[in-house]
Give the backbone structure.
Amino acid sequence: MSYFNAVRVRADVPALTRVINGHPITYLDSGASSLPPRTVIEAMDEYYRLRHANVHRGVYQTANEATDAYEGARSAVAGFLNAPGGGEGVVFTKNCTEAFNLLAKSWGAANLKDGDAVLLTEMEHHANIVPWFQLREHINIDVRFIPVNDDFELDLTNFDELMKGVKLLSLTAMSNVLGTINPIKELAARAHQHGALVAVDAAQSVGHLPTDLQDLDVDFMLFSGHKMLGPTGIGVFWTRPEILNGMPPFLGGGGMIADVRTDGYTPATGFTRFEAGTPMIAEAVGLHAAVRYLEGLGMANVHQHDRELTIDAISRINHQFNGRVKIIGPTAHANRGGVISIDIDGVHPHDIAQVLDESGVCVRPGHHCAKPLMKRFGLAATARASFGPYSLVEDTDALLEGLQRAITFFG
Amino acid sequence: MSNLEELYKEIILDHYRTPRNRGELPPPASKTEGFNPLCGDELTVYLDVKDGVVADIKITGHGCSISQASSSLMSVAIKGKTLEEVREVLSKFKNMMTLEGDVVDLNDPANRDVLRSLGELAALQGVAKFPVRIKCATLAWNTLSQGLEEN
């Protein structure tokens, strides 16, 4: 039985007790990084205080406990995603960006050849663009983009045409700028009909929407821990175990080998092959606690909470500012996430964010690592407010007051 | 004065709303582009240097109020100046932006003289209190500096 009470969630997050410039903090930057609840912080603290040892190969009791904690996190993540093959397909990385580099530089380098195409979308984060351009420096692959239409959704008119020669469709489940939620299950089925594999950037979605890998039927899923109430320094690369076993090693060193000789080495199999060196044990423990916390809330409830806040915020912005404050993203009632990018004619996003900071309101100005998308809409930057499970309508109140002040100030 | 008012002095808002010397200059004027990759600000500085004097300067681009006002104030400050004078203003401005901590101590005669010599540019001193905004204020100046080297 899941429960959800945002006021109680808020009480669980120590960082929300901060007072900034004389105002209680209004944290509207969960799209960049979410704030961990106490259970996440305490789990990592307890691990370091009582159970820390290096994982694997240890014989003594605390080394076994550390190994159990690390591997327990892997199983918990697999369960959270309903991953086919369980924890066997879960590789821990530094962050979502490293997971994409693993995808491009291991799977991509081994499976793509000259003339093959990779299909992305115009709403991708740079993490799902740059590694493909880097791979293109070595293999003559074609990197294509599904356009975004004026309703801030993928323009699928020429999808089947674009899929010709495509070996991998790699796209975001939810735009970090627009809040658009993409039809992953439908696109995965269509891409599979073309014989392509499908990779999903779940950085924005995994902490905000229910995720069921068996239902989505995708081949790769990549995300970071710190956008789902977990710590920084850990990300997840998931793929089907049979695909993982066919991928060459990425980083080399201790831990990822089956054998090392003076004439060469043999890599380990499975996820071990991709986890070179001492892994992020405490971060895995923290991520495990974050997974448990989100499961306790219920992901459908978290999504519903985001939706209610988003519908309320967008309609109030439209009503109060009468078009002066433009929302760069789908309308309130679309199936969208709790990310609201705004553009105010004559007031630069940096200045909006500066005025908001004066009253403790945290939003993010900039291109949000999605420059092709910014260019598509003729913008250099937006100011972005994004919700978390601890966000309240009071946060929106503070945002609107701040926006009014910014407009008054800059005229 | 609140922190915000210190940052956004009236003169800065005026130069932001009504930027001076906007536009382009045809060759042989030099053209130098500057970017702030973190926030997406872009600036192009056109410099027409004749006989060691900045005969004309024009600026295009987009960015926040601080970067736009700073570029406008800069264009006014250096237009008609000799290259030697421009380099001196440039160095004084950068010095003002790197002064640590609080607003420049006006009781220090050395600072008073520097600020007086900077004229309207001194309005930007409040930016130094907002470390993440310093790069906004210095974008135009770094671009100018690059343009002078190329000239």
Summary: The mean pLDDT of chain A is 96. Residues 42 and 353 of chain A are 32 Å apart (CA to CA). The interface with chain B takes residues 21, 348-351, 354-355, 358, 365-367, 371, 374, 380-381, 409-411 of chain A (CB under 8 Å).
